[in-house]
Amino acid sequence: MGRFFKVFFITFFISILLVMVGFYSYLRIFNPLDNINDISSGFGDEDDDSNNDPNATPFENAVKNSKRINVLIVGLEHVRTDTIMVASFDRKTKEANIFSVPRDTLYERPGYKAGGLKINAVYQSEEIGGLIDAVQKVMGIPIHRYVTVDYEAVIKGIDVLGGVEMDIPFRMKYTDPYDNPPLRVDIPKGNGILLDGKTSLGFLRFRKGDPGYEGYPDGDIGRTKAQQRFVKEVIKKLISLKLPNFINEVYPYIKTNFSTSELIALASDSIGFSMENLSTETLPGNEDQKIKRETGLSFYALNKEEVVKLMYKMYGVLEEEETSSNE
Question: How much is the pTM?
Answer without folding.
Answer: 0.80
